[in-house]
Design goal:
By secondary structure, the protein is an alpha/beta fold. The protein has 2 domains: 194 residues, no CATH class; 117 residues, no CATH class. The chain has 14 helices and 7 strands. The strands form 2 sheets. It has a 5-stranded mixed beta sheet, sandwiched between helices. The protein has a two-stranded antiparallel sheet with strand order 1-2. Strand 1 and strand 2 form a beta hairpin. The longest helix has 23 residues. The radius of gyration is 22 Å and the shape is globular. The protein starts with a helix and ends with a helix.
Length: 345
């Protein structure tokens, strides 16, 4: 009898912890989503599997949502589809995973309830802080919540993200990723819980910039600098002098064109590390005059790596600017040249 009572009290305590963390019971993943009195959306008919993970045809979801008359119901419908998808995803990940939800975010993980609550709180706080740090640039989508999937291992993480990079034979190591393919969401791994906060700050910044056609170097530079301001950690394995020497030895005409095009960020050698660091340095320097920089960021376009906007809004040639930072003589070959990107691709 005493053992039974202890069991019931323990179950009640766990349920209380789950409720406080926003953890949902384990409902059967829904076959369809119904909002108001309109026609249902058969989400199960719009799922495909990649490895064991469900991939949703978000174009079909968007078409259904846009067919709803009320903007309020549209927002509810999109969120309901996000929730339905994550419940299917939870089933694929296994019984240890639970879906937790707050006012602004959903978290799918096998984390302990107290960690879940802290993570959801951190996501809400980070969203507010990003809007302040990137004043006039960041934008929160009117539809949906911030979605974070925390995988238990690298294998599952890379299996899932490989769907979005089907031609990549080799991945550069990644601690987390923002996926903006139909439904914006973030993925990371729970191997080192200390790394989750900077990943969240970094990837949520990407989410708040997704409405702009930014070149990759500018997008990553903004995310890295925002991450540093919010988290305050420098995880570099090298001293500033060592990084300087690496930069001076690596960058040349071909490499800088890879940087402007975005291709160097996918390298699996030092070019990956140096691309992110160069993006951080350039944005850190340019953003010192925030109002002027804001105009540049809003006008920048990935088609020319932001070259035209830099000339018009900042009065600089990006190639000459990079040469100066990397202690090189100015060279026209360093200016973003999209024609070379096509030839080299």
């Amino acid at each position: 009898m005493l053992a039974r009572l202890r069991s019931l009290l323990s179950a009640k305590k766990n349920a209380t912890n789950d409720n406080a963390a926003g953890l949902q019971p384990d409902p059967i993943p829904p076959e369809e989503v119904v909002i108001g009195g309109g026609p249902p959306f058969r989400i199960a008919d719009h799922l495909t599997l990649h490895y064991q993970f469900p991939i949703v045809d978000w174009t079909s979801v968007r078409s259904w949502v846009e067919g709803i008359d009320s903007p309020e119901l549209q927002a509810r419908a999109w969120t309901a589809c996000e929730r339905a998808w994550l419940l299917h995803f939870r089933k694929a990940l296994g019984p240890n995973f639970k879906l937790a939800e707050s006012e602004t975010a959903m978290l799918l993980s096998a984390l302990e309830p107290n960690v879940v609550k802290a993570t959801l709180d951190y996501m809400a706080r980070t969203l507010r802080r990003i809007a302040i740090v990137l004043d006039g640039i960041a934008e929160v989508s009117p539809w949906g919540k911030d979605l974070l999937i925390v995988f238990d291992d690298q294998e599952g993480y890379y299996h899932y993200v490989s769907y979005y990079y089907p031609e990549a034979g080799e991945f550069a190591f990644s601690g987390g990723m923002h996926i903006d393919a139909g439904c914006s969401h973030y993925v990371t791994v729970s191997t080192d819980l200390r790394s989750i906060e900077p990943v969240i700050a970094h990837e949520m910044t990407h989410g708040c910039l997704a409405h702009l056609p930014l070149p990759l170097w500018l997008n990553e530079g903004l995310a890295l600098n925002t991450e540093r301001r919010l988290v305050g950690k420098d995880s570099s394995l090298y001293t500033p002098q060592e990084m300087r020497e690496k930069h001076l030895a690596f960058w040349g005409e071909d490499e800088i064109q890879e940087f402007w095009s975005g291709r160097s960020f996918a390298r699996t050698d030092d070019g990956n590390l140096l691309s992110y660091d160069l993006a951080r340095i350039i944005v850190e320097q340019l953003a010192k005059d925030w109002e002027t920089f804001k105009g540049f960021a809003l006008a920048a376009d990935r088609s020319d790596a932001g070259a035209h906007a830099a000339h018009e809004r900042l009065g600089i040639d990006l190639g000459k600017y990079a040469c100066a930072l990397l202690e090189r003589e100015p060279s026209p070959a360093w200016t973003p040249d999209s024609a070379r990107w096509q030839v080299d691709s």
